[in-house]
Amino acid sequence: MSSAAAFDQALALVHDTLTLQKANGAKIAVPLEALHRLAEAVGEVRPVRSVRESAPVARPVLQRSRPEPPAAAATRPSAPEPAASAPAPAAEKPSRPQRFSDQVRAHLPPEVVSRVAQPVSTAEKQEKLDRLRAKAGDQLALSSAPLVFGSGSVDAEVLFVGDAPGAEEEAAGAPFMDEAGQMLTKIIELMGMRRDEVYLANLLQTRSEQPSQRRLLPEEVTLHLPYLVGQIEIVQPRCIVALGGSTVEALLRTDRRIDAIRGQWQTFRRIPVMPTFHVAYLHKTNNPLHKQAVWSDMLKVLEKLGRPITDQQRGFFRSVRGRR
């Protein structure tokens, strides 16, 4: 997946550069250096033929009229002036040219192209999630606790992930169904989204039999983390919101405390990650400063997504204090 992301990133850069050159009237040809860089981006360093070498392009021949001698021009009768006519219809908009990515892929080695991720439809994503859910149910069947798999939109831009489900989630079979989950729903709505537009998941896919007020055990993380990673790879969100210290520690493999890393963008498999306090912690402490900190982190998420932020959203906590 990382090689595909590198390929697409390099591909987009070359595409934008050539599009700008074409707009300025330059002749467009796939440069040999670009093909080499694209091949190197996915781990292939081998000779790649340019477009000119592999598929010669027929160039139009311009017919230029030669000036006639003065004597011939004088004896030639002048052509009558054309009568006034209606304005010529506007030229039809040319059809969209072939995508540059298609041109590049046509001249890359087949083994490189085969490793490039192709767009996945919503139905295909859902099918993959269903298979992963069934596999998780089989592999975690030794536990007596019911499976609590992720839920939400498979095309979500934002994926919220917590640490472990509780009793309410276990009963409902879905994450974030308790009072803390209701607080998360309000946060999502304040961000201008609906709960069914995002994807919700937990690090653990079943409720733990250990006391709730503790850090996750290493063996729990080892057993359950692959199923969370599988969901992330299928959904491919534009950013991840990691809720709580246990989630951040397991997902990012860090020993930094949540209050030290909160609000600072991290990455997980090239996906931006925003660490922040868990909504269960907000619900328990009811600390306005912690709530305001989480909201400031959500504004950063909106900025990362390129979504507009209203004055009401930016001044939400000021307006809340004013009503008090």
In short:
By secondary structure, the chain is α/β, with parallel strands linked by helices.
List keywords for this structure.
alpha/beta, 16 helices
Q: State the separation between the terminal residues, measured CA to CA.
A: 50 Å
Largest sheet: 6 strands, mixed
Number of helices: 16
CA-based gyration radius: 29 Å
Strand residue percentage: 5-15%
Helix/strand order, N-terminal first: HHHHHHHEEHHEHEHHEEHHHH
Structural class assignment: alpha/beta
| DSSP helix fraction | 40-55%
What's the overall average pLDDT, rounded? 77
Total strand segments? 6
Low-pLDDT ranges: 41-62, 91-100
Give the overall shape, derived from the CA principal axes: globular
Spatial order of the strands forming the largest sheet: 1-3-2-4-6-5
Give your account of this protein's structure.
The protein is α/β, with parallel strands linked by helices and 324 residues long. 48% of the residues lie in helices and 8% in strands. It has 16 helices and six strands. The protein has helices spanning 2-23, 32-41, 51-54, 70-75, 100-106, 110-113, 122-139, 167-172, 179-190, 218-235, 245-252, 258-261, 279-285, 288-305, 311-314, 316-323, and strands at residues 151-152, 158-162, 199-202, 239-243, 266-268, 271-276. A six-stranded mixed β-sheet has the order 1-3-2-4-6-5, with helices on both faces. A hairpin with a 2-residue loop joins strand 5 and strand 6 (271-276). Helix 1 (2-23) runs antiparallel to helix 2 (32-41) and helix 9 (179-190) crosses helix 13. The two termini are 50 Å apart. Mean pLDDT is 77; it is low at 41-62 and 91-100.
